[in-house]
Design a protein that fits this description.
Helix content is 4%, strand content 32%. With 477 residues, it is mainly beta. The protein folds into two domains: 14-287, Jelly Rolls; 292-436, Jelly Rolls (Sandwich), CATH 2.60.120.10. The chain has a nine-stranded antiparallel beta sheet with strand order 1-16-20-13-10-15-8-7-28. Strands 6-25-24-27-22-21 form a six-stranded antiparallel beta sheet, with no helix packed on it.
Length: 477
Amino acid sequence: MPTTNFSTAEKYRYQNGFNSYHETEAVEGALPIAANSPQKPSYGLYNEKLSGTAFTAPRSENQQTWLYRILPASAHASFEPRESATYNTNPESKPHEKLHHIPNQLRWDPFDLDETVDWVHSLHLVAGAGDPTMKHGIGMFIFAAGKDMDPHEAFYSADGDFLIVLQHGVLDIQTELGKLLVRPNEICVIPRGIRYRVALPQGPVRGYILELYQNHFTLPELGPIGSNCLANARDFQVPIASFDEDTDTPWTLLSKFSGHLFAAKQNHTPFDVVAWHGNYYPYKYDLARFSTIGSVSFDHPDPSIYTVLTAQSDHAGTAVADFVIFPPRWLVQEDTFRPPWYHRNTMSEFMGLIHGQYDAKTGGGFQPAGASLHNVMSAHGPDATTHEKASNAELTPVKVGEGSMAFMFESCLMVGVTEWGLKKCKKVQEDYNAESWEPLRPHFKLPEGKKIKNDLPDVKGTNGTVGDKRQVPHWTS
């Protein structure tokens, strides 16, 4: 079956479908019929609308969900700044913590697990572009946590949608709209503003996050592929309604707002949504369900053929963010250099490895829990070892990537690297170029008897005069 053989069994139930309109109730009769905001909702609940897009967004893009809850989300005290001297995931708002825009290829050793912090305090911005206050751009994070969030704390990001790529451990996520269990080789998306709490049932966790400041993730258009393959809509899993009844316990609500942390007190649980209906919700996806497309003759398509989710810019076909994977797959092309070609890209490419070995980097430096960044027009491609193997390999059908899953966050934006990503984490491999591409050697050899063509005409010229229309190699006075 095209699913991951997880070592941790699933414990929740889900609804299926990407961007589908779902409805779910934990108590029968909690959802109103036909109306969204009845004068007296069932069981004394409150009506609340959660909008992920402008009210006037086109119907095809509009995202909203109606919640029926015990107390509305607004029932809390004022937010106050918290840890303002140390917590900042928006360096552009502090000039002395600016992003470093550099053309160098970068690669990081595996990031450390950290058993001392919870989910909220494990977030480290490695690179990014744009500004969440303008709802434009992206942030690329590493997280590494070792503790559950406090039993009476909840968190949300007002800055953007979190696309979470888990590399190690298990995430048990309680959201306002229901519960999700996320395991390695699964991804999870938690949209902007949705409140949640993260527990770690199997100890420390580690992984990557792409925060999208603008728009929302969608499935890529399939074009001539047709109506199926890549990530199929039915394989995305959405939580069902699940609520707690607690109206007399102090809770702390944490907000990431413009990269800074704020906290508010309330005397009830935020996880009190008894029923909901809409198309704005968290979801998860098993990467093993991705149906890969590839060449069955010669050459191979661009890596965009491996796109799971995309967020388009205002220019069709150009993504602010693509989430791309390189799953196990068959290579059968004839007379073809099968790894990715050497290339320079107008897009920025941030890569990570969940497990296994990436087939284009077999030299050993690209490891699970590590990362690489090839920024706008930074030249890159297979390392010297991989090039040598691929250039001389017998071109029989071969399956690559067995037991492996690499991924890429790709963006049309020029990505800046934070001080933490460049220096403080102490994971940057200083010898990345020396190991990967400097060992490449020229193989060019001019065949004996071959003449070198140049851009000069192969004719005997004469000195020209002003107005002479004959084609001559050059004209001198």
